[in-house]
Design goal:
The complex is a heterodimer of chains A (430) and B (112). Chain A is mainly α. Chain A has a single domain, classed as Ammonium transporter fold (Orthogonal Bundle). Chain A has 16 helices and two strands. Chain A has a two-stranded antiparallel ribbon. In chain A, helix 9 packs parallel to helix 11 and helix 10 packs antiparallel against helix 11. Chain A is globular. The N terminus of chain A is likely disordered. Chain B has one domain: Alpha-Beta Plaits (2-Layer Sandwich), CATH 3.30.70. Chain B is 20% helix and 37% strand. In chain B, helix 1 runs antiparallel to helix 2. Chain B is elongated. The chains are: A mainly alpha (430), B alpha+beta (112). Chains A and B meet through helix 10, helix 11 and helix 12 of A and strand 3 and strand 4 of B.
Chain lengths: 430, 112
């Protein structure tokens, strides 16, 4: 989030978290926009991401993807209520650099009147909840078509509490990275880097799908994928524009640079495929869109439209290359390309935020007295430390769950498909 | 009696049906099938991953006719299904022992 938000959630010197004491005045316009953005960001997961991913898998696993997105939304919401929000945004007092406090467990003591900045705290909580929902939902692309449903549930819940919540606190909740001055407007580090790294590690721990890379595994319904992609593009207005936490020009600019980066990503990816493979593919165009959007996310409140154009072009080119390297060269079955698109995009955007935010490049300025190089160093520390934390915890969680309950379905079940084996349903009756 | 089985390009199905109607043939069975011959398959590319699709969609027509109609039927199918490009398909003619119309119990020529 932006610095304004950091200010309100780092109540230096206040022993007890007390939003009312910090609050300014309720602003109806700000509240209305963040409420709208909350709906837009939930819409990105349900049904945007569900359709986008659902179309990309084979016909026997389409329901498993839709189900995972739905159930993750429900599980994460309850975890957010119980402890997630408090640990991410509460005041951790002595341990504040690492984790928030427990005073908002079960959202205790929060009435409709308490403010967070110029919006009700409950609106801020709900907006943040939708970010917590989409992050584990993005990871499922890494282990699609082969993970047991029960293991997926345990993994998503524990991952949220052990990776998402602490990282969210470090960056947005007044933790140690916020103290260092890290810039992550809407989640290049908190959302895209973490989901990308987790998906890559999950793909490595689970191993490739049976038959990969020899057996063809083309998308079963590209129409569904493009429908979902369109919803993601629209929803991203709320993701980045809403992260301004205000209905003002900052939100408008964030929305516009987001849109420009998406457009540049579409055209870049399309052009590369056209030159290299002879045909501009639909999947290439929508993947370029996601790459542009993921990459601009951390930068969206700090850069100008020209910077966004450059960032979108770079996103298309670099994420395309990363996709080829991970799947074709390294033969890692990150099934729906979560790491090369979201992870690499998140890293690229987070690093370049330091550069493109400078006023010389049309950005809206780094903090006073901070040089591009200095900020780049902070961004790099954040990327490396969050990447390591996320990678190690993800690895440990999956290995532990594998020992306890088993994380992968048997080869017979994998051939039969997750829809019938895990849910006793099929997506289509022909 | 003969059973004529033709594998044709799906977009030629309507032309073939019309040509057979003109001959007075009153029924046929059509199935969507996949296969390959000299045409081989085609490739699809998703995020740079190339898949060879070996089996191409075709339409399979089955028509049962009396002996004196066989040549004209084969000719009509060949004419109407031909594009001159690879992948136009094949016609198989095989002998047919018996035909029964289920509703009436008629057999042989009467049942066609």
């Amino acid at each position: 989030m932006n610095k304004q938000h950091g200010f309100f959630f780092v109540p230096a010197g206040l022993g007890v978290f007390s939003p009312a004491a910090l609050a300014g005045q309720l602003n109806g316009a700000d509240t209305a926009w963040v409420l709208t953005s909350t709906a837009l960001v939930l819409f990105m997961t349900l049904p945007g991401l569900a359709l986008f991913y659902g179309g990309l898998v084979r016909v026997r696993n389409v329901l498993s993807i839709l189900m995972q997105c739905f159930v993750i939304a429900a599980v994460v919401s309850l975890l957010w209520l119980v402890a997630g929000y408090s640990l991410a945004f509460g005041d951790g007092a002595a341990v504040q650099p690492w984790i928030g406090g427990l005073e908002r467990v079960l959202v205790w003591g929060m009435g409709p009147d308490g403010l967070s900045g110029s919006i009700p705290e409950v609106v801020f909580l709900a907006f943040q909840m939708t970010f917590a929902i989409i992050t584990p939902a993005l990871i499922i692309g890494g282990f699609a078509e082969r993970m047991r449903f029960s293991a997926m549930l345990w993994f998503s819940a524990l991952w949220l509490l052990l990776v998402y919540v602490p990282v969210c606190h470090w960056v947005w909740g007044g933790g140690w990275l916020a103290d260092l001055g890290v810039m992550d407007f809407a989640g290049g580090i908190v959302v895209h880097l973490t989901c990308g790294v987790a998906a890559l590690v999950a793909a490595l721990v689970l191993g490739p799908r049976k038959g990969f890379p020899k057996v063809p595994m083309p998308p079963h319904n590209m129409t569904m994928t493009v429908t979902g992609a369109g919803m993601l593009w629209v929803g991203w207005y709320g993701f980045n524009g809403g992260s301004a936490l205000a209905a003002d020009g900052g939100a408008g600019m964030a929305l516009f640079v987001t849109h420009i980066a998406a457009s540049a990503g579409v055209l870049t990816w399309m052009a590369i495929e056209w030159v290299r493979f002879g045909k501009p593919s639909v999947l290439g165009a929508v993947t370029g869109m996601v790459a542009g959007l993921g990459t601009v996310t951390p930068a969206s409140g700090f850069i100008g439209p020209a910077g966004a154009l450059g960032l979108g072009i770079l996103a298309g080119g670099i994420c395309f290359t990363a996709t080829q390297i991970i799947k074709r060269v390294l033969k890692i079955d990150d099934s729906l390309d979560v790491f090369p698109v979201h992870g690499v995009g998140g890293i690229l955007g987070s690093l370049l935020t330091a550069v493109l935010a400078s006023e010389t490049l049309g950005g809206f300025g780094l903090a006073e007295g901070v040089t591009v190089l200095g900020q780049l160093g902070v961004q790099a520390i954040a990327v490396i430390s969050v990447g390591l934390w996320c990678g190690l915890i993800t690895f440990g969680l999956l290995k532990g769950l594998d020992l306890l309950i088993g994380i992968r379905v048997s080869p017979e079940v994998e051939t039969e498909g997750l829809d019938i084996s895990q849910h006793e349903e099929t997506g289509y009756h022909w | 009696m003969k059973l004529i089985t033709a594998i044709i390009k799906p977009f030629k199905l309507d032309d073939v049906r019309e040509a057979l109607s003109d001959l007075g043939i009153s029924g046929m069975t059509v199935t969507e099938v996949k296969g390959y011959g000299r045409q081989k398959g085609h490739t699809e590319l998703y995020r740079g991953a190339e898949y060879v699709v070996d089996f191409l969609p075709k339409a399979k027509i089955e028509v049962a006719v009396v002996e004196d109609l066989v040549d004209r039927t084969v000719e009509a199918i060949a004419q109407s299904a031909r594009t001159g490009k690879i992948g136009d398909g094949k016609i198989f003619v095989s002998s047919l022992e018996e035909v029964v119309r289920i509703r009436t119990g008629e057999t042989g020529r009467e049942a066609l």
